[in-house]
Amino acid sequence: MKASFFFMFLISSVVLLAQDLPCDSTIARIIQPITQADTITSSDTLYMSSLVSGTPVLVQSTVAICFENGFEVAASVSFEANIDGCLTDFSMENIFGGNIDLDNLENYANQPVPNYINEDNTDGNPITDIGATLGRVLFYDKNLSVNNTIACASCHLQEFGFSDTRVASVGVDGATGRHSMRLINSRFAEEERFFWDERAATLEDQATQPIQDHIEMGFSGNDGAPDLDSLIRKMNQLEYYPVLLTDAFGDAIITETRMQQAIAQFVRSIQSFDSKFDVGFDIVRSQGGNNQLGSNFPNYTDSENRGKALYLTNPNNQNGQRVSGGLGCNRCHGAPEFDIDDNSDNNGVIGVIGDANATDLTNTRSPSLRDLFDGNGNLNGPSMHDGSLTTITAIIDHYNVIEVNTNLDNRLRGGPGGGQNNGQRLNITAQERIDLEAFLKTLTGSDVYTNDKWSDPFIN
Ligand code: HEC
Ligand code: HEC
What we know:
single chain, alpha+beta, two-stranded antiparallel sheet, 7% strand, binds heme C
């Protein structure tokens, strides 16, 4: 349906017209700043909301256009608009329902962070509500893959702590070479490099790599595959991006840097601090005194407190065998963030998915051990870069008897006979296994699995 409308912007007279028009502020968020008489075509993304003050303006039409608060314009601007029925076709509400309300954004920027959390890799890209909202849309948008089937969220599922229960995740062109990683508290990590092998220098650097990975989302630019510029052209056709970009950055121009900033803001916003551990730590901190982390938590069972002590304390060895003390986990997965020590080498897990004979010694990063388990006590997917450890028993067995490799962390050496060439022997007892597992389960939160602000905003 083609219609030709004559728009008249006459601030004084329009007020009267406005009352008769069905006015829904989601109907039209109009593109390109309109500063002079102009011809608008259906391919334009109209964005006027910050440009024109107060009043819906329309002549000879059934289409309502709402102008939100803005600054003054010249008293009279008129132009002709050839619109191919496009204004009514697009509304944020048609795409997001009530999931995104630009006038009432979710809180991402000012979420409470416990004051015992010291790590923060935000650097020059602080979270804003609109930036993280744009990041959320990008994170869930399958249009960011070459065949419209895969989004970040296909491999990072909220219900599993933003990881995947599959050993290898499925991308546009096959399976990933490593297991997906939980995205819990990525912001609060001493190690600022990302991926298991730390190949991304920052979270911003990481953010567009999956999009450009030929297996994951496919805009690699290699072997005839489209590149990031063609993705940006594609995104310009999706009407919600100009709107979101304009709100986030002041204009509608899509760039890789802006995508990185928005996605990184959303990922950094994913935080989990409502675990049983946090409740207990809060209590002992409010009581004052030294070694609050090591004190028994009053909200813990005896087993959980014993598990905590095992986790936090280093082993005492004789002749390379642990004879007393703890299990030394905290040396590398330091409480209260439970993030990985940035000096860690590998932990003896050196497998490669799908190739029993290959080894990979390069993996030295781990996600936070928070939310390793879900709220029902099940692992949020298999563990380690190769997804090889599928039960807590297997994880404990691994650390109990470590096999040496050339890039093994020194803290995991010194086994029987001592020295660098022997892996640790923890001699973990049956009771200690129960206690360690009980403690690790206290690191699981609940809000991060259910809060809508991290959920899929698309209604289709
Ligand atoms: C096809 C599955 C898949 C898709 C799609 C995917 N990821 Fe991942 N993601 C993974 C895998 C697998 C890893 C671990 C890869 C590695 O270390 O080599 C990972 C790692 C990460 C990490 C590193 C976490 C850490 O603690 O180091 C972040 C952050 C991340 N992904 C965010 C994203 C974002 C943002 C997107 C979308 C732009 C995305 N992922 C798309 C599978 C996927
Ligand atoms: C020397 C440092 C070091 C010590 C000590 C250590 N870890 Fe790790 N841990 C790592 C590294 C590095 C990884 C990532 C390994 C990989 O996938 O290649 C890891 C991975 C893990 C994972 C998998 C996380 C995931 O998301 O898949 C778990 C679980 C874990 N460690 C538990 C423990 C426990 C429990 C202890 C104590 C018994 C412990 N670690 C001691 C360095 C260490």
